[in-house]
Amino acid sequence: MTSRPSPDHRPSSSADARPYPTVDVHAHLLLPEVDALVADLPASAEARALDARRNGPAALAVSGPMVRERAPMMTDVTARLAAMESQGVDVQLVSPSPSHYHYWADEETAEKVYRLANEATAAHCAQAPARLHGLGLVPLQHPEQAVRALQHALEQGLLGVEISSHAPGRELSDPAYEPFWSRAEETGAILFLHPFGCTLDERLDQWYLSNVVGQPVENAVALSHLIFSGVLDRHPGLKLIAAHGGGYLPTHIGRSDHAWSARRDAGAGCAHPPSSYLKRLYFDSLVHDPHVLRELVRAAGADRVLLGSDYAFDMGTEAPVAALRAARLPDPDFHAIRGGNAAALLDLA
């Protein structure tokens, strides 16, 4: 049994003076208002049943009490700030729990969801504006609403939006999303790619494989769609952060490069080897293994990795700075990932 790293406020050497804040870009918010909005809708019950099948009864028996226990940390700003103090985190980029996507919703309900989520997230962050910055939601199941939803989020003072790895019947490579990518690029909005659910369904319904394996798979598939389809060629200015270190893709990107060079079907959609696009994306540091984190830094570059904790869920880390320190990176890389990269990306004063 491995010991849990303790919270760590220290710079990596006594000579360093913390020139910028420690920034956690992967921190969640629960929105009871959104849950109440959709609770009695028949389609919501169907979505919950699908989620139950995908996760399995054993996982649900653990997840329910875990979320209830940790809910105050994701709803009450005072509790959030206290946790940040204990972790040595100065600033959080707060995104709604992915359980609030509700990509099953019809157009009318979807608009209500994103408006309520954006406004509630902005209100939460406004209670500590120097320390909390927020992301909203967009209904990927209705691409025609995506630009309006993004604009609404920005109008609330949010820095961008959180998106999943796909919507029912649509991958992120779908041409219907082109106006959304264009608007995100034009505005400089942050896009946080965080999966919810995995289309492998009941194959992952034991041992919490729906999350343990499913999330990294979904990250890798979604990023591959963005790369191989040419989305990142057409929109090189996108500011996209991939949760969970980008899943399995960065550490297995050599296979993608080989396919791009060896097969005309694989190489038809993007102009450059897939590995080169890792340096156009951002990744959080939440990979749970210092050796994997070092490989992520090697593959993407130290300037493309940001501190992430998955606050406050049990699949995150309660000591993100200590987890970063365990990778034993050079001091400049450590401090860039600890906060320098995020400070520049989020334009923190």
TrEMBL record:
Entry annotated with the keyword Lyase: yes
Example GO molecular function: carboxy-lyase activity
GO biological process, one term: secondary metabolic process
Domain Amidohydrolase-related: 23-348
GO CC terms in record: cytoplasm
Keyword Transcription regulation in annotation: no
Coiled coil: none
Keywords: Hydrolase, Lyase
Name the record gives this protein: Amidohydrolase
Lineage summary: Bacteria, Bacillati, Actinomycetota, Actinomycetes, Kitasatosporales
